[in-house]
Amino acid sequence: MLTINFLVIALAALIPMVIGSIWYNPKVFGTIWMHVSGVSEPDTKRGHMWVTFLLTYVFSFLMGITITFMVIHQFGVFSTLANEVGFLKDSNSEATIFFNDFMAKYGTNFRTFKHGAFHGTMTGFTIALPVLAVNAMFEGKGFKYIALNAGYWIVSMALMGGAICAFN
């Protein structure tokens, strides 16, 4: 059977927080980020940081759910059959028999960290980069701002995809 392992997604949702603590550290890209985004050190300390971290985790968890369907190809077969009469309700239905046979033969194909990291990277380039770039252009931000923030999300999504694909 094909299921979503929410524990794996919950752990993968920590990855952007860990990567962010390194990426945006002043000794790595933090000083550059503050300069290109127009944020000062006091700006980073105001507000309720626990709310920011909590929401970062929640949004990363939601991202992890979406990444799951992008890195585990077997979900494509599942969703193709989902509306078939008797699918998974009747063990003798044609769709259920086909799906069970398919999963027995191909259920572990492409279920590696490397494969998930590839799709996570592609997701970063095709979703995170365009969204960030459009917003940045309208905000009048430059190439460094886009590259810095998109790079963070591409790396985070690559690692999330790898973890989710390998362990889900």
Largest sheet: none
Record field, number of beta strands? 0
Strand content: under 5%
Please estimate the helix content.
Answer: over 70%
CA-based shape: elongated
Low-confidence stretches: none
Supply the number of structural domains: 1
By secondary-structure content and strand pairing, the structural class works out as mainly alpha
List the total number of helices. 9
Distance between the termini: 12 Å
Helix-strand topology string: HHHHHHHHH
What is the C-alpha radius of gyration, as a whole number of Å? 20 Å
Report the average pLDDT across residues: 95
Q: How would you describe what is shown here?
A:
By secondary structure, this protein is an all-alpha fold. The protein has one domain. It is built from nine helices and no strands. The chain is elongated, with a radius of gyration of 20 Å. The model has no long low-confidence stretch (mean pLDDT 95).
List keywords for this structure.
9 helices, mainly alpha, elongated, 168 residues, 74% helix
In brief, what are we looking at here?
By secondary structure, this protein is mainly α. 74% of the residues lie in helices and 0% in strands. It has one domain.
Chain-wise SSE layout:
Elements: H1 6-12, H2 15-23, H3 30-37, H4 41-45, H5 49-71, H6 74-81, H7 94-106, H8 113-138, H9 143-167
Helix pairs in contact: 1-5, 2-9, 5-9, 6-7, 8-9
